[in-house]
Amino acid sequence: MALIELLEEKIVKIPLVSFDKEGIIRELVDVLSQAGKVDDPDALFQAVMSREKLGSTGLEDGFAVPHGKTSGVKDLAIAIGIAPQGVNFESADGEPSKLFFLIAAPPDKAGPHIEALAEIAKLSRSKALCTALIQAKTPGEVVSLLRGD
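Given the sequence above, the corresponding structure tokens read:
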């Protein structure tokens, strides 16, 4: 399943209002819950936090990809959040994260989960796209940018 197939305005939150890792993850889990993508938000939150304890999912250049697997979701789901102010996510380069892609997957869907991670990692290499996403003002703008409209 391609990332583009999962994009819709209701899975995007601008701006994220939390100022720490746990708060950001909670906000993104809530986005998925409100969009009807998660049966058990608490299980997803715990799965993502457990994954973070293994090592931060903060990449470089303001990108973070928190993720977790739980039976609390039936299918691969992604929430996108933007924190223009930047949040300490213990990123590889030590810089604050501004773009967040939370991936939730059921335990038996490793393939799509890995594909989504790879697609997001590829997106993170486009500096122009990242800058445009950080400056986006609406969920619709984010979806259009990611679809290449």
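The first helix runs from residue 3 to 6. Try to locate this feature in the token string yourself.
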